[in-house]
Design goal:
Length: 238
């Protein structure tokens, strides 16, 4: 009798679990359809999530990117009284800019004024599918560049004094051909836009393991250029 009761309980649990999994999948499917096919729902959902992220960033004292993701960005590092600062500016574009390379070129040239004659700078142009990143004044307006597979298994920032590690997890849209990443300004920006406490100086190390399991260290005088078949380690000129 006890065996029969145990079998009934187990089967009931399996049935309830199956019903829960099925119901959850159906709800997720409906919600995704609503999100993908109703712009108003998409906007409200994204805005609510952004507001929560904004509150979290204030509480933990880190930066976040603007809600409007149609932007160009320039920043440079300054060093005053022993401390580094990220001097950044966002410039926003619209659909009319996107339809004309001339408009986008004009916006990019305007944004360059912020980093003109500066050292350790970065320029980014953010599109829906990719982000163009340069650490030299070389405007790249490519909108539909092919996303490449990351050539790295892991990237870690090692603090100069403590050697504490912070994992650097880059968005897939950063991995396009000829993007220039992991320069000092890029690294400092990344650290400012994540919630963990950190120390920064020009004695840091970036520890990298690539897809072929090669392990190497990137110095503050170096950066990575993404190539179609991998990457290239280069020395900074600015």
């Amino acid at each position: 009798m006890l065996k029969i009761i145990q079998d009934i309980v187990v089967k009931s649990q399996i049935l309830l679990l199956s019903m829960y999994a099925y119901t959850t999948c159906e709800i997720d499917s409906v919600l995704m359809q609503l999100y993908n096919h109703h712009p108003a729902i998409t906007f409200v959902t994204d805005y609510v999530l952004y507001c929560l992220l904004y509150i979290h960033s204030i509480m933990n004292q880190y930066y976040i990117e603007p809600f409007d993701n149609k932007w160009t960005y320039t920043a440079y590092l300054s060093h005053t009284n022993g401390y580094y600062a990220l001097n950044e500016q966002y410039y926003f574009y619209n659909k009319y800019h996107l339809n004309s390379n001339l408009f986008m070129q004009s916006l990019a040239v305007e944004s360059i004024e912020h980093i003109k004659e500066k050292n350790n700078y970065i320029m980014m142009i953010n599109y829906e599918n990719n982000t163009n990143i340069k650490n030299n004044i070389n405007i790249d307006l490519s909108k539909d560049a092919k996303i490449l597979k990351s050539p790295f298994l892991s990237i870690c920032y090692l603090e100069p004094k403590t050697e504490n590690k912070i994992d650097i997890k880059l968005p897939k849209k950063y991995f396009i051909e000829n993007n220039e990443i992991l320069s000092p300004c890029f690294i400092y920006r990344y650290l400012k836009y994540q919630p963990l406490n950190f120390e920064f100086s020009m004695n840091y190390k970036i520890e990298i393991i690539d897809v072929d399991c090669n392990v190497f260290t990137l110095k503050p005088t170096e950066y990575i250029k993404i190539k179609n078949n991998g990457y290239e380690k280069l020395r900074l000129k600015n």
